[in-house]
Amino acid sequence: MRKIAVLTSGGDAPGMNAAIRAVVRTAIYHGMEVVGILRGYSGLMQEEMMPMTLGSVADIIQRGGTILYTARCEAFKQPEGQARGLEVLRKHGIEGLVVIGGDGSFRGAQALHKLGMPTIGIPGTIDNDIPCCDVTIGFDTAVNTAIEAIDKIRDTATSHDRTYVVEVMGRHAGDIAMYVGLAGGAESVLIPEAPYDLDEVIRKLERGVARGKKHSIIIVAEGAASGIEIGKYLAEHTGFEVRVTVLGHIQRGGAPTARDRVLASQLGAAAVELLRDNVSGKMVGTRNGVVQAVDFDTVFTTPRQPDMRLYDLANILSI
Ligand code: F6P
Q: Whose CA is nearest to atom 10 of ligand 1?
């Protein structure tokens, strides 16, 4: 394989730059040319691309976001969009593609694979909602960003004897909520994967107050409920002073943690090695710490479940 391309797609995640760097440098190490496609599949269809050199990925390993920009692209879900993508790749002599993103991005990569373009996916999303891998690039950073904010919220919650509801990201997955709930000592954690009972949340708050507890923090994954609605319900049904913070996109930015940089570097390099070995139609991730490739079809059909032991533990420790 003489020439490959790399793109980032879907929501950005800290560590994507480290993955791009690893793809580019590994490919150049092996004597290949690399093209960076801008703005995901949307940029691919519009031929937005630039040659990547050793220098073009210098000084990015520590930066959040993605130097290739990213987009969510409806048109690429259609066969016409995919055919156009293939046409552009062929026109530029590209023989393999690395796609860094989440589930939707992998579906585009799978379509190109089926059309005969070798593709490898790298899981990059803060939500950690991709099955068949230990963790996605960006999750560790997002959790650390959220916990830093929650620690600050706790300071002011303590000073004012207030109950705080903090909404964290996670459209379909409660992983961020579970991790920050456990790491931040939250009183309750609401996630989309488990049913919750707001009256039980209230009983727990009231038990805490009866023991002399003056402040509480409730973590809500956006996929479970709106933090604002939960806050309203709690205020109306308890008479406590409740405040709500929606952390939002702050969780998607910032310098990646060392853990995310290391994972991204491993996976970026492995993706190039797989393309060189004529492997295609797979996601590369770690499982039990070991880098492994899994068919996209397996990724799409494997149900994903967060580690509910952590959820149970968060509940036990916040008794
Ligand atoms: O990347 C995943 C995610 O951050 C979700 O947690 C969130 O629901 C969504 O993206 C937000 O998407 P957008 O940036 O398009 O508003």
A: 11
